[in-house]
Amino acid sequence: MKALIQRVTHASVTVDGECTGTIDQGILVLLGVEKTDDRGKADKLLKKILGYRIFSDDEGKMNLNVQQVNGGVLVVSQFTLVADTAKGLRPGFSSGATPAMGEELYDYFVEQASTAHTQVATGRFGADMKVSLLNDGPVTFMLEVN
């Protein structure tokens, strides 16, 4: 399971002209699910994301996590994160989860995030989404768990 996280001033996701999720200061999480992933990996990744210290403290050092700054978390499914790009000029998706498995783990991840954190918004799994964000920094990290 992979997550590309971006520290944002604000972010939103729109599907068919309807805003499905929006946050102010916080983290945009682009979530990719692989066929070897399970709920245990989802739990580990969520714990890492919520605890990851990417917000500045009073001294300007990245020492605070999203919960400490009372920030939002916007979770958007993105299967292209798990693409194999090592060879050729076209991505391969053989390591990606099936749509059913990906949706089940995405939904589970969102449920757990909503239980652990008060400000969680989402996109819509499998939809053509338009994501808007103002990256703060820019600060972007790729997080993975095994």
What brief labels describe this structure?
alpha/beta; D-tyrosyl-trna(Tyr) Deacylase, Chain: A; 6-stranded mixed beta sheet; 2 helices
Quick summary of this structure?
With 146 residues, the protein is an alpha/beta fold. The chain has helices at residues 39-51, 99-116; strands spanning 2-15, 18-23, 26-32, 55-56, 62-64, 72-77, 120-122, 129-144. The chain has one domain (2-140): D-tyrosyl-trna(Tyr) Deacylase, Chain: A, CATH 3.50.80.10.
Structural description of this entry:
The protein has 146 residues and is of the alpha/beta class. The protein has 2 helices and 8 strands. The mean pLDDT is 97. α1 (39-51) packs across α2 (99-116). It has a single domain, classed as D-tyrosyl-trna(Tyr) Deacylase, Chain: A. The strands form 2 sheets. Strands 1, 2, 3, 6, 7 and 8 form a 6-stranded mixed beta sheet that branches. A two-stranded antiparallel ribbon has the order 4-5. The radius of gyration is 15 Å and the shape is globular. 21% of the residues lie in helices and 39% in strands. Its EC number is 3.1.1.96, 3.1.1.-. Its main location: cytoplasm. Belongs to the DTD family. GO terms for molecular function: D-tyrosyl-tRNA(Tyr) deacylase activity; Gly-tRNA(Ala) deacylase activity; Ser(Gly)-tRNA(Ala) hydrolase activity; tRNA binding.
